[in-house]
Design goal:
The complex is a heterodimer of chains A (80) and B (267). Chain A is mostly helical. Helices cover 55% and strands 0% of the residues of chain A. The N and C termini of chain A lie close together (8 Å). In chain A, 25% of the residues are buried. The longest helix of chain B has 20 residues. Classes of the chains: A mainly alpha (80), B alpha/beta (267).
Chain lengths: 80, 267
Amino acid sequence: MRTLEQTTQEVLDLAAKHFQLPAGSLSPGDDFFKKLGIDSLQTLEMLSRLENHFGVELPDYEVQGVSDFKTLAERIQSRL
Amino acid sequence: MRSFIGKTLRWEWRDSMIELILDHEPANEIGTAMLAELEKFVGAFGALAPETSVCIISSARKSVFSAGGDLRELYHRAEAAPERERPAGVREFLERIHAVLNAIDAAPFVTIAAVHGICFGGGFELALACDLIIADKMARFAFPELRLGFIPGFGGIPRLKRDLGNAAVRDLLFTGRTVNVSRMHAVGLVSQLAGEGEAPRIARSTAAQITKLDAATRAAAKKFIKPIPHEELRREIDLFCELFTRPAVMAALKKFVEESRPMPYLA
């Protein structure tokens, strides 16, 4: 079972890879809408990547209002 | 007509296969422009059917199969009409789209939706009219209509009920959530999973297999396996019209059209 720290790191690594950012350029407290400048379509793409990676389902309404990586990782962790 | 290039879509017939490609900015919304070209497309079935085994429907848009019905257009048309005439205007649009999707559903050849990215609402209903759905691992499916106060209106509920268990239908409708391709594969709606960007190639490979089937047997089997739920489709149009023109729905749609984001119902 992953720890929350491991899940958070994997979320950061996936986001950096998907949006072609240098590894280590994202932090758990970053606002991903501001940091990545993504729209709702790109958010759904990211959601698919996260679901495929972690093998979970994340209903979009459960991540509504979530804008930082750490809280997103917590939502994922609760379904692992 | 063996090939056609329109403003919202194009198709080409080759080697007993039709490829229809949706290509309408920004997200293949199905409004009157795409509907008119889809009518042209199904109008060509009569001439093409005798020499066609398979039709593949896909999208040229990045990250999107189709975001669904053009709600902005539907709202503006309804808003511009006198209140008592609104139901008739909505019904006329629905009758036309139902005729198109029923023609695709009943086509005497095999139809495959090759899906990538967003496949929501009316786009999902287009895919549901097809015999097979082949989707890549980034595909997401949703019926978000109830979030706006109405129901899917392009035949989605009767076709979902035909193809899925009722619990899965309720999950899609009552949550309006976006569902990934693994779930849709697990419930049996997606027949084959494809790698990212590979759905059209896998659809063509499947089409090549289907062309080996005897045409008369294939068509007879399809008719036997896949009855069209005409009565429920009629009831869906009635229910949609009843719900759609309520003041609460018009208010929700007004809020929707005033948003600049592509899919505000997911906010």
